[in-house]
Specification:
alpha+beta; three-stranded antiparallel β-sheet; disordered N terminus; five-stranded antiparallel β-sheet
Length: 214
């Protein structure tokens, strides 16, 4: 068993030497058996002939040199294809610097969110659904919000009033559906209309809460 084990070790060392150009030494142990090593193993160490080669870079070093960071637009394209199930695109995105770019984008989005950017709060904290952190961040950054919704933006209507674009943020739900609510400029019990339905409300918050409760 001892001889077989050492034969296997020698074979492995020979393989390493072939790949990396290392020299293999042989020595005589105290019990008289021969041992092999990729380092000098004793005062009587002798080089085993025939297994040294020109030194080449290791596989890890070669892969490191071959790894090139791709431009952001290329990484974005590959990530889209990866999300669609393209395994080759996933590998190219990974080796092209995709994970590093993603971490950097998250870092920047986190800083912008802290500065009050609602869009960056959504990008950084709501990508995985409506978590507690997501709700806290977007509700805190939005100018107008309710318990289950927040205002993303608003545009004026030609006939007066505003068109409000709201997004639902219901806890423990994956989806974050959007709705548009058109509110007339004058007060009234039915001044706000939820687009895509025939439902009307007195205020935008009532319409938003009703939509998000569905």
């Amino acid at each position: 068993m001892l001889l077989v084990t050492r034969y296997v070790v020698l074979s492995a060392l020979c393989f390493v030497a072939t790949q990396a150009g290392a020299q293999i030494y042989t020595c005589t142990a105290e019990d008289g058996t021969r041992i092999f090593s990729d380092e000098k193993c004793g005062p009587d160490a002798k080089i085993v002939p025939g297994i040294t080669t020109k030194r080449r870079a290791s596989g890890a070093q070669t892969r490191q040199r071959q790894r090139v960071t791709l431009p952001p637009e290329e990484l974005e394209r590959l990530l889209g294809e990866c999300n669609d199930g393209d395994i080759k695109a996933c590998n190219e995105w990974t080796h092209g610097g995709g994970p590093n770019q993603l971490r950097e984008e998250e870092r920047r989005a986190g800083l912008a969110c802290d500065a009050g950017s609602l869009e960056d709060c959504e990008r950084r904290y709501c990508a995985d659904g409506v978590t507690e952190e997501c709700r806290r961040r977007v509700l805190g950054a939005a100018k107008v919000s309710g318990e289950t919704w927040y205002l993303r933006d608003q545009t004026p209507l030609a006939q007066g009033g505003f068109s409000y674009h709201i997004r639902c943020v219901v806890e423990n739900r994956r989806e974050m559906p959007d709705a548009t609510i058109d509110c007339e400029g004058s007060a009234g019990a039915q001044r706000c209309e939820l687009q895509g339905s025939e439902r009307r409300f007195a205020r935008v918050d009532q319409a938003a809460a009703s939509f998000c409760a569905r």
